[in-house]
Amino acid sequence: MKYDKKQIILFAKNKDPLLEFNKPKQTPKSSPFWSSFCQVSFNKIKQDFIRCDKCETILIHKSIHGTKVMSNHIKACKQVKESNTNVCALSKNSNSTQISSQVKKLITEACVEFASLDNRPFETVKGVGFLGLMEKIFFAGQQLSRFSNIQMNDLLPNPTTVSRNVDQAYVLRKEQLIKWCESIDNYCITVDFWCEGHTGIHFGGVSLHHIDQNDHLHVFVLGCYPYDEDDQKSPNIRAFIERILSEYGLKLDNNNYVMSDNENKMKSTFGYNCKRIGCSSHYLNKQLEHAFTSQTIDKKPVDCIEVQELFRHVKTLVTHVRRCHKQLKLSRKLQMYSDTRFNGAFYMLNVFLSVFDELFPVINNTHLQDYVSIDKDFLQQICDFLTPFDEAFRQLSETKQPTLHRVIPLRQYLINHCEIESKDHDGIKKLKRFLRQRMENSWVLDDEHYLATIVHPKLKHFQMAAPGDKEKAIRLLKSLVQNEIACQMSTSSSIHSINQYPMNNSSCSNHSKSLEGKSLLARCFDQVSEPMPLYLHECEEYLNSTTTMNENENGDDEVLEYWAQHRHRFPNIHTIARKVLAIPASNTEVERLFSCSKMSVTDTRTRLDTEKLNKLIFLRKNLHSLKMSDAKEDGRQKRKSTNQYESDSESEHEGEQLTPSISKKRRIEINNGLSDQDGLNE
C-alpha cells in the first residue's frame, strides 16, 4: 500500500516501527547522490519518497524523476556544508552550467526519438562510439556554421560505405598490431571456443597479453574467428590456434604461455611446446556448480542436500515468474541460473532474496508450495556466504591489471572462509565442508602462481597461503634467477659458471689443507666465509627489502609501478616478473568476446558474415588502445624531429635553416555505430 507525504511525515514523527529508511544497493550505475539519501519503506513496501541524511527532510521521489530532486535539495539543504558538496560537483561541472535547459531538453527529446524510431537501447547514448560520433558532428557543425543549406543526409555516409570502411580500418589497425608484435619477447595468449546460437557456427577467440620493457601491461584481441576445421580434436584445435598466431608473426614455444579452461581437450591441445596455465575462475566456478547441481562427483555423493533443495525451489519460481511476464510487478528483474556464468547461483539467489517479500502476490497457486518451502533466513545465510566468492571472481577477472598473483591468497582466503562455525545452519556446514575439500584438492596451482605471488612485494611473505608455499616459491625464484644469470653469461660467451663461488666440498678440503702445520689455537680461529653466489644475493636482498608499494585511488596495488622503479635494483627478478605477471588469472578477456558477438549477431542482423563479425570485434576491443599507441608514437616522432631540427640548426652556418620533415601516418576515422546492412559484401 502506498501512502501520501503527510502520512509518511506523521509515521516518522510518531517513530512508527514499520517505517524504515534504507540505503539502496549500490551498483556501478548508481548515482552518487544516493550517498546522501535513503529510500523510504513502510511495512517492507517501498514508498515514493526519500529522506535526506543531513536534515531528515522527506521528499517525493519516483524513478522517472531521475536525480533532479536530490541535486536541487543538496544545493538548498542548510545542513550540508560547503566543504561537503562534492556529490553535487560530481554531476555539475563548470561547462554544463553554460548549457541552457532549453538546449538540453532539445537534445533529450532527440535521444528519445532516436531510441524509439530506430529501436535502439537507451544505453546507446552512453556508448563511447556514440559520444565520439556526436563530437565529430559537433565539430562539423562548428566548421559549417556559416552555411545555411547543409542537410544532415549530405554529411552521413551510406551504410555500404560504413561497411567498406570497416574493412579498411581493420586492415590498417591489424597491420599496426602486427608491427607491434615484432617487438615483444614473451607473451601469454588466452583461448576459448563457443557456438553461436542463431547460426550454429563455432568460433574461437584468442587474446594476447604482454608486459613491455617499461612495465606496461598490453592486452589485445587477435580475433574471434569461425572454427573451420573438420572436428574439434586437439591436433586440429592446435593447428587452428597456430594459424591465427602466424598471421601476427607469433608462434607457441616453451617460452610462452597459454591460458585456457580446464577441459581435457584443452589440456591435450596445449600439453606440449608451450606452458598451459589453468583458468582459476573455471576451477572455482566448477566447484560451486557441483555444490548446487551435482548429485555425485567421481562416483561419490555430493552431501549438499539442503542447499540443492532450496536452489531447486528458487530456480522453479524464477522460471515461473519470467515465463508469466510478471517481472514488471517486482522492483528488480529476476536472474536465471546459468552454469556458464561465473558464480551464477549467487546472482540468481541474491536477486531472489532482494524481492522475496514482493513475490507472494505475484506467484499463482500452483507454485505457492515452492515459495513456502524456502527458509528466508537460510537463503540469507547462503547469499552472505557466497558474497566473498563473488568478489574473488571480480578480482580474478580484472583485465587492466596483472591478476595471477591474486590466485594463491584469494584461494587461501576462500578456504579459510569455509571454516565451520557453531552458529551455522546445517546446510551451510555441509556446503562449507564440501567446498573446502574441493578447493584444496581440485584447484590446481602451477609454478607460475607461486612466482607471481613472490614477485609481489606485499605478498612475498605468503601470510595468506598454505604451509610450505613460501618455501616452494623461494626455491623456484632462486632457480629461475640462477638460470637467468646463466643465460646472460652464456650469451656473452663468458667462460665462468653461474656459481662463481662454488658451494661444494672442495672448499672444505682446501680448508683442511690450510690448517696443516698450524697451532691448535690457529685451528680455532674464525674462518673467512665463502662469498654468497650472485643469484642468492639478489634474491635475499629482494626478500628482505621493506620498500613500500603505491596503491591507486581504488585501493588496488600498483605492482607494475613497483617493478618500473626497481628493475635496475633487481634486474633478474624483474625479468621474471614481466613474464609471469603478464599471465592472467582467468581467460575472462576471451569470455567477454562471446558476449560482444551475441550483441552483434541478432535476429535483425542476419546478413552479417563471420569475417565482418571478426573485424567488428577486433575494432571494438583494440581500436582505443591502438589509437592511443598511435598518438604516443606520433608524439615521439614529433619530439624526435624537433630535437633533430634544433641539433642540426646549431651546426648550420648563420643564415641557413633546416626545416624538418615530419611524416604523418594515414588515419581512418570510423564510427562504432553500424547499420544492419553492414554485412554487405562489395
Automatic annotation (TrEMBL):
Signal peptide from the UniProt entry: none
GO cellular component, one term: nucleus
Keywords: Metal-binding, Nucleus, Zinc, Zinc-finger
GO molecular function: protein dimerization activity; zinc ion binding
Subcellular location: Nucleus
Stretch list, region Disordered: 628-682
Polar residues bias locations: 672-682
Domain of life: Eukaryota
Mitochondrion in keyword set: no
Keyword Nucleus carried by entry: yes
Protein name: Transposase
